[in-house]
Amino acid sequence: MDxxxxxxxxxxSYSVAWRGRECAYENLRLGTPEQSYKLLPGYLHMLxxxxxxxxxxxxxxxxxxxxxxxxxFAASIHGFSYCWPVISIDATHLKGKYRGVLFTAVCHDAxxxxxxxxxxxxxxxxxxxxxxxxxxxxxxxxxxxLEQHYIRTAKTYNLQDFHVLFYTLCSAVPGVKxxxxxxxxxxxxxxxxxxxxxxIMTTNISESLNAVLVKVRELPITxxxxxxRLLCQKWFHERHQLPCDHVLAVVRKTPYQAYDLxxxxxxxxxxxxTYRGVISPIPHISxxxxxxxxxxxxxxxxxxxxxxxRRRK
Length: 313
Description:
Elements: H1 2-8, H2 14-28, H3 33-50, E1 55-61, E2 65-72, H4 74-80, E3 88-93, E4 101-108, E5 114-122, H5 127-141, H6 148-155, H7 159-172, H8 176-183, H9 185-188, H10 204-212, H11 221-238, H12 246-251, H13 268-274, H14 292-295
Helix pairs in contact: 6-7
């Protein structure tokens, strides 16, 4: 309003300024928020077609209203096997017209950078949304099911409890005692771990990702998903090369071999495999090829919860 007064000498009300702002945004953000929801199924189809192996789940409620969205790029699914196996989960509120919540799952790569795993959108931070998102994360990134005895043995912190549980486990599975002891108890049990596992005790990387996405959380749903794709595409492209090799230069002056002093996560092979995948761009909407059943499906926006008071940015 002040800019209009200063530049053009025109007084406008807050509501007029708001409507003008929204009209300008429509031209930049793939239409109105309502149009963006209708565009989403076609966009997701193209995303999976251009990035085969990606996992995308879209769920709707009665009346074809948007309910949940889950996205895990194929490049992230492949790269996770070569990252530190500790997943950080977080959620933050979206700021668009229809609100909602962004769920994120991330981990560390060998260079301690944020490695994006999966993104989800739900209606709120309630138990149903959390359960839906975590279920999808587990189905895509979860490990094989382990016997209950093994889980309890690995997770206990108390040495006395460990010996009891370990005896029960070994009695139930012939040959497992020799195998697990050969692996090393410090490698798979909390009670024998020499330090905090991977030294990751916070969800700071999730908070950092939320900070990176703070601006785009105002966008309509399809433009928002596209910005997430652009970010992941940029990170995978930039990190494809090996990180700084200063440490290797130091090791060369010692009688040791670099690979003898580091975990597999820090090897050249693991780093290349982490970012071997490619996240491809989505072509312009004019060149999309959408199956008829998807093009005819009209996704409706979720119910908006009107907040009392003046509309805010």
